[in-house]
Amino acid sequence: MVELVFDIHNLQIFSALIMLAIASIWDIWKREIHDILWIAFGVVAILLIIFSPSPLDSLKSSGFSLIIAPVAIVIWRTGLFGGADALGLIVLAALAPQTSFSHGIITPFTTLTNAAIFSITPIFVNLIRNIIAISLHKNIFDGFKETRLKKTLAMFLGYRAKNPKYSFPIEKKEGNFRKLDFSFRHAENATFCATSDTWVTPGIPYMLYITAGFVSQLLFGDIIFNIIHNVKVV
Predict the structure, then answer these.
(1) Given 62, 132, 147, 190, which residue has the most CB atoms within 10 angstroms?
(2) Cα dist. 47→8, 52, 154 in Å?
(3) Which of the residues in the chain have pLDDT under 50?
């Protein structure tokens, strides 16, 4: 029989992954995350600090990682992501501070910067989707009176959806024409599109990117620092 022994470090990683998995599933299903999740895992973080071999060192490590807190709050207040995402980053910093299996550089901002890199993947998905639609001779800009520059930008930011769901509109009506609208929408206040045959940008929960950012932190460390380091070596 194989005996599995979890030390505090492994418990931190395991707890963080469970928390992020629950948050991601909840966010996809309900498009909101109940605060009870952050309270519960906040308590777990405190218990892991108390019962660690060196509580003072663990407290210092978590305290240093929590410098992400004001940054997360500012990003939330500017509307780039929701309050649940900010709380998730804060609890994650306390729960598994600067944790990684790699030997690369890790900072309190690594999960966030890694998440930001993953958040640009829809741009490429949108472009491929639109190129395929055009190759099938679909007039994706039918009814629009726009410049070529705006149409090109739209191909990166969104797509024309027949049945939009959990997406945000990026067009508006002006007279007899439809116009592209790239104005900023606050993550907490924006409403999903309910009109068919509309240009939209996908409303992918940012918690998925945070989860991907943390997993990549565990496996590879800080993606940006790794790229910079490899460029210097070359």
Answers:
(1) 62
(2) 10, 8, 48
(3) 1-5
